[in-house]
Amino acid sequence: MRKLVALPVLSADALSSVAYGPEALLAVLVLGGTAGLAYSVPVSLAIVFLMLAVGLSYRQTIRAYPHGGGSYIVATDNLGRIPGLVAAAGLMTDYILTVAVSVSSGMAAVSSALPGLSGDVVLIGVLVIAVLLAGNLRGVRQAGALFAAPTYAFIAAILALVAFGLYDAAGRGFEPVPHPPLHAVEGVGLLLVMRAFASGSTAMTGIEAISNAVPAFKPVPWRNARTTLSWMIGLLITLFAGTIAMVHLEGVVPRSGETVLSQLAHRSFGSGGMYVFTQAATALVLLLAANTAYNDFPRVLFLLARDNHAPRIFLRLGDRLAFSNGIIVLSVAAALVYVAFDGDTAALIPLYAVGVFLAFTLSQSGMVVHWWRRRDRHWRKSLGFNATGAVLSALVFITAGITKFTEGAWLAILTVGVFLLVTTRIHRHYARVAEALRLRPQKIEIPSRTIAPLAGGAREPAGNAEGAEGTEGAEGTESTRDAEPEESPEEMRHLSVVALDSLHRASMRALAYAASLQQPVLALHVSPSDEDAERFRAAWLLWGDHLPLRIIVSPYRAIVTPLISYVESLHRQRPDLTITVIIPELVVRHWWHRVLHSRLAGRLRRALRPLPKIVVTTVPFHVPDGRST
Questions:
Q1: Which of 21, 171, 196, 510 lies 20 to 30 angstroms, CA to CA, from 222?
Q2: CA–CA separation, 297 vs 299, rounded Å?
Q3: Does residue 220 have a cis bond before it (omega within 30 degrees)?
Q4: What is the CB neighbour count within 10 angstroms for residue 36?
Q5: What φ, ψ does residue 495 adopt, rounded to 5°?
Q6: Do residues 260 and 23 lie in contact, with contact meaning Cβ atoms separated by under 8 Å?
Q7: What is d(CA 343, CA 125) in angstroms, rounded to the nearest whole number?
Q8: What stretches in the chain show pLDDT beneath 50?
Q9: Buried-exposed string 486-511: b where 16+ CB fall within 10 A, e elsewhere
Q10: Which residues contact 470 (CB under 8 A, 6 or more apart)?
């Protein structure tokens, strides 16, 4: 991406937080009455310093991880597996709440301009999440001017609001307008100020997005990413500080039914076209910010599944080349959270701060370890920036966890704990399965006769889109109209096709079963890349290359469609053969382990049922539980 496109697309989450961050800060301080509100400027200055420190820290992350360095990757590489999982838990909590908070804040912007919709914000918000789900499942991605426009419109609207407000304030000598009478419901003390600091710090959400997407930039990617990050931090500080300045000068305080930004826009622009533009731009940029989570959440799930900490279904791309399963999980979780909190942004903020700053803290701590180990050029300066970011992020995390524990932060902390428990148990299960599947010395009976390669060789189709359903329309092909004349065993001519994901005990058992039938056998492997294909071929040669092998390269991790296409091509070339597709199948003892493994056999049966003379069979391999290993 060019910087002019990357800036609005990747900064939407961070910049849109200006719509709710300052208001979250003021909503806490106003509990202390006029005395509490007097701390708005000092607390805001502390948050601005935090933005600057964390922004400089992530510039070091981009330099160290030019291929993308999210919190999970950085924490795992430098701190270990458990801190990496905790960082992933914080990130995933952050992404779920990004959707819920962005939608709730967007609904607040809409209902401020159209008060008649205030009673339906929960229903409308759920419908918005459903639209985001449908759009991302269809493969609508962030790109180009279409997705850049809302962010630029929001930046223009807030800058115009601040400029008009400052011009008006200059006419009265920058004398602040008295705010409405406030009655304190809490005493002003350190606890109240720290709560306000933690709430206002949610204006920093999304700062990590650029460091995650470094490879998406045009050359030189890391340099362009650092430049874009610097612009984003500058804009974020300007918009946040400008909003707080206007709140102070205009005497605006949070109130139910209308957001702080809406009150400021009314004072600067009245109720005309510029007011409508400001509210529309705010709602649109918040919607775009919610959509950014749909890029990052499935990616984190993919990385966890790759490392055996999440079910492997999250490795799979859908038919639109999107991680459909991760997108669905995010939408369901965000909708549940949104409904549970009645679409109230103020109620969601305490959960938000915990996940955001937990991930920040672990990422920056990991970078401190990284520079200490590397000690290359300028390592002391980089370590200093990251150490400052880590300390400040940890301060916000601890503050949010303590001061907002009873307001909902406990739920975020509990979620992190449950996530850590579930992911470690999943990893333990996959480790036990890997040990059970590990090859041991054994002898496999080889068929006494094999088939020669098919004339001209069967074409090896590249996988495009995952999903067996897309192939079930095969009944209209020529092969489905072929007769099945065999009525006696002597008339049957067989070919066994053994589908292999890798060489392990389950696949060897399937090969042994196929060999025991004393019929021609063909091994078939679907590989996600040329490198993986070469690794499998090397393992096959090491085993002995006893059987004919075909390898299909499917770059989008599709399995079912390439397998079906290949079987169909065999059937067209040799309609005289009855083809038996043999699949090794893992059988686990507990029902909750089934979701961790592929249901390939059932999907293949449904897809191949329309074709004549095709048989699908499975060879079970029973995985012992932990007590028997």
A1: 21
A2: 5
A3: yes
A4: 23
A5: -145, 125
A6: yes
A7: 7
A8: 142-144, 443, 445, 448, 450-483, 488, 628-629
A9: eeeeeeeeebbbbbbbebbebbbbbb
A10: 319, 561
Pairing of strands 521-527, 549-553: parallel
Given this model, what pLDDT does residue 142 score? Answer: 47
Q: How far is Cα 237 from Cα 218, in angstroms, rounded to an integer?
A: 26
Annotate 384-436 with DSSP letters as a single string.
Answer: HHHHHHHHHHHHHHHHHHHHTIIIIIHHHHHHHHHHHHHHHHHHHHHHHHHHH
pLDDT score for 608: 80
Q: The pTM is what?
A: 0.81
Q: How far is CA 476 from the centre of its chain?
A: 39
Note the pLDDT of residue 275: 92
**Residue of 11, 16, 392, 43 whose CA lies nearest to 203:** 16
- Residue given tokens 């920056």 in the structure block: 364
Whole-number CA gyration radius for the chain: 29
Residue 465: half-sphere exposure toward Cβ, Cα within 13 Å: 14
Type and span of the H or E element at 566: helix 560-573
Residue 449 identity (one-letter amino acid): R
Reduced to 3 states, what is the DSSP secondary structure of residue 582? strand
Continuous H helices in 201-256: 209-212, 221-250
Q: Which of 464, 507, 497, 472 is nearest to 578 (CA)?
A: 497
Residue 376, exposed/middle/buried by CB under 10 A (0-12, 13-18, 19+)?
A: exposed
Alpha helices in 114-208 (DSSP H): 121-137, 144-170, 190-200
Which positions ≥6 away from 129 have C-beta within 8 Å? 99, 103, 290, 331, 334, 335, 338
* Element spanning 345, H or E: helix 345-374
